[in-house]
Amino acid sequence: MKIVVGVKQVPETDSVKIDPKTNNLVRSGIQGIINPFDKNAIEAALQLRDQAGGEVILLSMGPDSYTTSLRDGMAMGADSAVLVSSRAFGGADTLATGYTLAKAIEAIGDVDLVLFGRQSVDADTGQVGPIVAELLNFPQVTFAETVSLESENTIVAKRQLDSAVQDVQVTLPAVVTVRKELNTPRYETPLNIKESFEKQITTWTENDLNIDFSKIGQSGSPTKVTKVYEPTKELKQTTVLPVDPTEAVSELLSKLD
Amino acid sequence: MDNNEIWVYVEITGSKIEPTSLQLITKAKQIADGRKVVAVVPETSKTQAETIIKEYGPDRIESLVDDQFDEATDEELADALFQVTDQNRPNSLLFPATILGRSIAPRLQAKLQTGLTGDSLDIYYENDLLVQVKPTYGDNVMCDIVCPDKRPQMVTVRPNTFRAKKVNNSQTEIVQAEFTFHKNKNSKIIATDPIINSSSKLDDAKVVIALGRGAYSEKNIKLAQKLAAKLGGMVGVSRPLTDEAEFSHDDQIGIGGASLSADLLINLGISGAVQYTVGIKNAKKIVSVNIDKDAPIFDDSDFAYVGDVTDFLNALMNQVK
């Protein structure tokens, strides 16, 4: 089984700065980590590989510094990694990102399963998985909380909707996006960390892929960020309750009624 | 070819109409400024959702009827919606940011090759551009996003961000949309089990006791659960606590989790980052307990108690009848 896992590197801190001139994220000086949900996707891929054999390939789009996350993922046990990296991909929104990743998956070739974390913790949209699935014409299961290989080319996954749980059966190749509840990602072992430095990270630019240049980067992105700002808050009239908890609760209960 | 209409996807699971879709019809009417508001509804012949949808006053309902929608996959839903939106493209297309909405909207986006903003908190028009407001990159940053050249302008909007309002004497035209249900041979829903205990319950709970990092202890969790049971409410958490064994994503309030509509919310040991506070802005009365008198959560609160969470919970347990 050939499994590709989409990996995004996200800022470690929540207080990221935005460049007011370009409206882009200022990445310099901030430590990058693997998007935590993507670790669940890697774990799911490793378990399926252990069960069915095959290989796990990590795929990311971003600057060279993203190799940090790819090394981490390989230290968990992934076999190799592909980084799609070039200035031409810069400023991509979800559609341009999904297109680029779909083209990279085509270039990897004969992929059976593509896994993603349910969403990234920074931009939080969870759109890229379904976009990749659509562009590759693969079926999808989103927000999976169980994933099992039913036969050589069938996966059954459970997904929780707002008022029902569905069991979805998909024929491979397919895209599955996973929830944190699916599993507990394994720790990197010293041996795996050592081995991760011997594993290969292949870097591709736009010239290595069979792509339409008008569909990548900023020019391939239909959405534009027009403004970045701090939200204004309407301050409430706050009643400060007395220090003594018993008095505080009495006052609260009398005023709530 | 474009038209100037605002389309709202009406999500139906089982026979239940997703409330967010109705909220979006109301919001679309408020911002329409002469544009027609159209509800697009994939449904079975049994559902007859038009009767309910009409009460919210869209100008038109485009009903896509096929009994296979009962257990339609994401691929089949996206395909059906593509058939009715591709030729005569609406100005905007709004989806609820539910699990289903967030799964089919990006597939449809890729088919239509247009822009989609996920999990938006506000929408308004500037001329013909739909400005989509979305918090991003952690604390205290909001973005305005537009899609200048492609149509429709697609967006998913968080549940309970707007209130649905019924209207009297609405003149709603009901149209049977022309489309063909294309069965996808590579995916299939093989079982559907209704659930009672889900995050949507947290969205709709009348009383919510919310725990944050500053209140995380076995004792406080037990007390909070007892109090919630006593008040007929539910326990929710801020994002950091979803990493703990006792809680999961379903318990999360704020971005990526529930948007509350509670009458009473008690925040315990929650500092009040914007990812959290966007999920509580529609709660009616907010009580917050924090050891730090400068915690930002107090700015969003009607009542503030600066002190120990356990002491406050014990006092509440003693005095609440």
TrEMBL record, chain A:
UniProt domain Electron transfer flavoprotein alpha/beta-subunit N-terminal: residue ranges: 22-213
Family matches, as InterPro entries: ETF_a/b_N, ETF_b, ETF_beta_N, Rossmann-like_a/b/a_fold
GO MF: electron transfer activity
Highest taxon listed in the record's lineage: Bacteria
CDD domains: ETF_beta (cd01714)
The name this protein goes by in its record: Electron transfer flavoprotein small subunit
Pfam family, one: ETF
Automatic annotation (TrEMBL), chain B:
Signal sequence, renumbered to the chain: none
Pfam families: ETF (PF01012), ETF_alpha (PF00766)
Gene Ontology MF term list: electron transfer activity; flavin adenine dinucleotide binding
Domain Electron transfer flavoprotein alpha/beta-subunit N-terminal positions: 6-185
One of the GO biological process terms: fatty acid beta-oxidation using acyl-CoA dehydrogenase
Organism placement in taxonomy: Bacteria, Bacillati, Bacillota, Bacilli, Lactobacillales
Cofactor(s) the protein needs: FAD
UniProt entry keywords in alphabetical sequence: FAD, Flavoprotein
Name the record gives this protein: Electron transfer flavoprotein FAD-binding domain protein
Protein family: Belongs to the ETF alpha-subunit/FixB family.
Co-factor binding details: Binds 1 FAD per dimer.
